[in-house]
Amino acid sequence: MTLTAETTINLDALIVATAREAALAAGAGAREAFLNPEGLQTEQKAGFFDIVTVADKAAEATACKIIWSRVPGSRILGEEGGWQGEGETTWIIDPIDGTSNFASGLPFFAVSIAAYHAGRPVCGVIYDPIRDEMFLAAEGRLTLNGKPVESLARAATDRGVELLTNAPYEGARPGPATLESYAEVVDSFRAVRRLGSCALHLAYVAVGRVAICYESKFNAWDIAAGVQLVAAAGGQIAARDADGNPVGTGHDDLSRVKRLVVAQRGFDYQSSCLSRLMEKGAL
Predict the structure, then answer these.
(1) In CATH terms, is domain 5-148 a member of 3.30.540.10?
(2) pTM, full prediction
(3) Is the confidence at residue 283, as pLDDT, over 50?
């Protein structure tokens, strides 16, 4: 089938509607499990610091079922199920980003879904089921619960803003170099917050709740939707691969991104300590 402009518009609208429906349904299941945690089973993946619950798996299954029922020609990369299906439309799903928070009873987690068609980004959705907030990037626009968002300008330098980051990360004792870099971050920013959900960190920068975020221990499903949100907001994105080389955040680049900074439009990232630390590969 030859795709006309009208066909593309209709397909994009279908993909966006499907992403919203899948995020809402997965989020509803996660919220129910969070509010009624009796018997919630957890398993370790990479270690005690990396867990999965039955709710993660159920939420991903719910999202996949909806996607395949609405857009049959879809291939899905899910955190729990890996690659499944085939087709020109690609979905990257984190059913519950912030699982440790979720399992501990901390109400800070989200469903993250990014969609692409033939490698072209179509939409990114991050849904917080506890606050009932849906962050959506589509058609180059950013919305929060369906309303356009105009990011509020924060201060332009480290001293005037908070930094969101999950560093230093659990799973290994930080070495002296890592601790020294983290000390510089703590000394530079007005405040540093480790909130436990990479997806929500990115969403909060996109809508202007915080000026800047840094992450370095993540997978494609943690950032795929979030970088679309930041791009739609006109924010800044600085990504580097494992060797410290600049890399994009498009569909074909995501798996190569190992360190990421996102910042609001207008923030002076070049003068930030994070810019220097990223250049040195110190974080």
Answers:
(1) yes
(2) 0.94
(3) yes
